[in-house]
Amino acid sequence: MRTNIFSRTLLAAATTVALAAGSLAAAGTSFAAPAPAAAQPAAVSEAVTPQAVNNLGLNATQAKKVQRWLKTYWNYRGSIDGKLGTNSWKAFQRCLKKYWGYTGPIDGVVGKGTIKGLQRLLKDSYGYRGAIDGIAGAGTKAAFKRFANAH
């Protein structure tokens, strides 16, 4: 009887070892093989454009005033939603390019060049007294609020 129990135990252990070895061998090959070409995602050719909103401290009511002004004078075609996004800033950049020394692209990105042009406008008529440095600090934001409230 002892031999029978010993044989069964040995057979069970050998089976377990064989199954484990087979599983490890299969796992090793599955990780080593590259994925078929059909399973890989296709490349996308569309450009991704950021839709960031930058109100430069304006509340929604003030931003709507700016958007109405941009719609009247600078070919803004977006909604009057109080969110100065890419299209609002493209329209503003057209103004800044024509009158306020902005030399960058009309891309709607509120970078240093856009802020410098805005600061020139604000310095001329809206009480901005700081440097034309392209940094939208407290003085720039306060003057921009005066600009928005005037429109």
Structure description:
- The chain is mainly α.
- Helix content is 57%, strand content 0%.
- It contains 5 helices and no strands.
- The chain has helices spanning 2-32, 60-73, 86-99, 112-125, 138-150.
- The longest helix has 31 residues, at 2-32.
- The radius of gyration is 33 Å and the shape is globular.
Strand content is under 5%
- Let me know the average pLDDT: 80
What's the count of strands? 0
Describe the oligomeric state of these chains in a short phrase. single chain
Shape: globular
Q: Main β-sheet, in a few words?
A: none
Q: Detail the poorly predicted runs.
A: 16-21, 23-31, 41-49
Fraction of residues in H or I helices: 55-70%
What is the succession of H and E elements? HHHHH
Indicate the topology.
Elements: H1 2-32, H2 60-73, H3 86-99, H4 112-125, H5 138-150
Helix pairs in contact: 2-5, 3-4, 4-5
Task: Give short descriptive properties of this protein.
globular, 151 residues, mainly alpha
Give the gist of this structure.
With 151 residues, this protein is mostly helical. The protein is built from five helices and no strands.
